[in-house]
Design brief:
Elements: H1 10-23, H2 35-48, E1 52-56, H3 62-74, E2 81-86, H4 107-113, E3 120-124, H5 127-131, E4 138-143, H6 149-162, E5 163-171, H7 190-200, E6 205-209, E7 227-231
Parallel strand pairs: 1-2, 1-4, 2-3, 4-5
Antiparallel strand pairs: 5-7, 6-7
Bound molecules: S-adenosylmethionine.
S-adenosylmethionine binds at residues 31-33, 57, 59-63, 85-88, 126-127, 144-146, 151.
Length: 232
């Protein structure tokens, strides 16, 4: 059993993270997953080696860049595919929304500079519209779009259905028992409330928080709000 967060692929992480940091600083940026979580995403993808992955919530592309690089490093050819969905056109040259979050370029431009243009498809759509009718397609889904409980509550069963058997669903901003994960005392309640409601209604699912990572995440801790979701 290889070590999940290290071992023989640590050197590849060093190379990929150096390349990524030349286009996207390894620092906290407004609304993107924190640097430690980007690193965890890279390792999970590198270990799980999905051929087809889905991300809900592109924003400035912090997670997208790391998922795409890990996919490309895992499977150089034929290129794996990452579909990333946001209801905002994150690459729109007229609004240049990335500048509002102090990001240097659009996600699409940064991916091109990393040689990952052929890995990622951008979709401008509401998550529920995109997920409707998807069935058994994806090897990996990352949910980081809406954080409203009533939306996440609808997304989760659809995302599970969109996975092929044995696929993985990862969520961001899961705060177990609605307790703060960091010392700032903040709680994002939507993802936990959505899962709690699904469980109360008899859906056989469980969240497996990744908990503590082997590297710093936020506010001087190694704690992450990433959680895998599994059918029981
Ligand atoms: C927290 S940000 C995602 C951060 C991103 N993963 C990163 O690391 O840069 C959430 C994104 O989800 C998008 N979003 C929110 N609700 C959505 C929905 N219902 N459907 C699609 N996108 C949505 C927002 O526009 C926003 O860009």
């Amino acid at each position: 059993m290889p070590e999940l967060f290290g071992g023989d692929i640590a050197g590849q992480w060093e190379a990929d993270s150096k390349a990524i940091s030349e286009v996207f600083e390894y620092a906290d940026k407004g609304g993107a997953v924190c640097p430690g979580d980007r690193r965890a995403l890279w390792y999970l993808i590198r270990r799980l080696e999905p051929r087809l992955a889905l991300e809900i919530g592109t924003h400035i592309g912090g997670s997208t860049l790391h998922i795409a690089m890990a996919m490309k490093t895992s499977r150089p050819a034929p290129p794996p595919r990452l579909v990333t969905v946001d209801f905002i056109d994150v690459n729109d040259a007229a609004t240049r929304q990335w500048e509002r979050y102090d990001s240097p370029a659009s996600p699409k431009d940064m991916l091109a500079r990393l040689g990952c243009a052929d890995v990622v498809d951008f979709v401008v759509a509401r998550s529920l519209d995109y997920l409707a009718g998807r069935d058994g397609e994806f090897d990996f889904v990352f949910l980081d779009g809406s954080h409203q409980a009533h939306i996440v509550y609808q997304e989760i069963p659809m995302a599970l259905k969109a996975l092929r058997p044995g696929g993985f669903l990862l969520m961001h901003d899961y705060f177990p028992n609605l307790k703060p994960v960091w010392d700032d005392g903040k709680v994002i309640s939507g993802p936990y409330r959505a899962i709690e409601r699904l469980q109360r209604e008899g859906n056989g699912i469980a969240a497996l928080p990744l908990g503590i990572l082997p590297w710093p995440t936020k506010l001087g801790s190694n704690t992450t709000s990433l959680a895998l979701l599994t059918r029981l």
